[in-house]
Amino acid sequence: MNARSRNALAALAAAALAALAGCASTPGSGPAAEAPTYRVGDRWVYHVEDGYRVKTVWDETREVTAIGPDGITILVTKKGPSTNATFTELWASPGRMSAGPLCNDDMRRFPTPLVRFDFPLAEGRSWRAWYDNVNETAIATGTLVARQVNYFARVQGWERVQGYDAIRVFQIMRLDDDTFWHWPTECRFTTWYAPAIRGTVREERLAQYLEKGGPGPAGGGLIRTLVAVAELVSFTPGP
Fold it and tell me: Which CATH fold topology does 3-19+35-232 show?
């Protein structure tokens, strides 16, 4: 991707993200959020809406099913009028993903765990890295096998969200799914992590890519593949 294309994608993504965030308040200062101690049976339920004009809705349940030497196993279930999916994530430790989807539904394995949350989370802290990964979904369809994704995150501060004190984390992911007809997908997530529930209380998820070969300096059109908001419905701690 040339510089003009990258700048155009960044500007369009930022504008869409601002619209998605809407009336979010300015984050404030507070203490660092320490790494959680999960328990088998910890269970989070979210209501998710995706899309602009035509909404796709589902309930997303995340449950810790095992904790052992290999890490933390989380079962994820999505159920809605047009959605029915179940998959398993593996976390080497809190905030560090060894296997699971990153932005879309592609299941990936990371030889070096990808740091989604670099605990303790303190205002102004940031981290960035390239990660090797094996895209198991792409292998199953005979396409992409193993490449790299880029991940950047910055902790922005504390807010009161869904009745919880939560620290806001902004994340940008550049995927490895470019093809002959489109540039890599860029994902921009804003998540609010609440220590009281050992998880997020709200997530704003945006993903999009630019088509190649258009008449303008940025190439073709901008295609959004994800514009979703997930809000916590309930949290049930494990015994």
Answer: Lipocalin (2.40.128)
| Sequential pLDDT tens for the chain (239 residues) | 444 444 444 444 444 444 444 334 457 778 899 999 999 999 999 999 998 778 899 999 999 999 999 999 999 999 999 999 999 999 999 999 999 999 888 889 999 999 999 999 999 999 999 999 988 766 655 555 557 899 999 999 999 999 999 999 999 999 988 888 888 899 999 999 999 999 999 999 999 989 887 655 555 788 888 999 999 999 999 99
List phi, psi (to 5°) of 21.
-65, -30
Q: Give the three-state DSSP class for 213.
A: coil
List Cβ neighbours of 18 (8 Å cut-off, separation of 6 or more): none
For residues 86 and 107, give the distance between their C-alpha atoms in angstroms, rounded to a whole number. 11
**DSSP states along 46-69:** EEEEE-SSS-EEEEEEEEEEEEET
Tell me how far apart the alpha carbons of residues 115 and 151 are, in angstroms, rounded to a whole number.
8
State the pTM of this model.
Answer: 0.84
**Domain residue spans of the chain:** 3-19+35-232
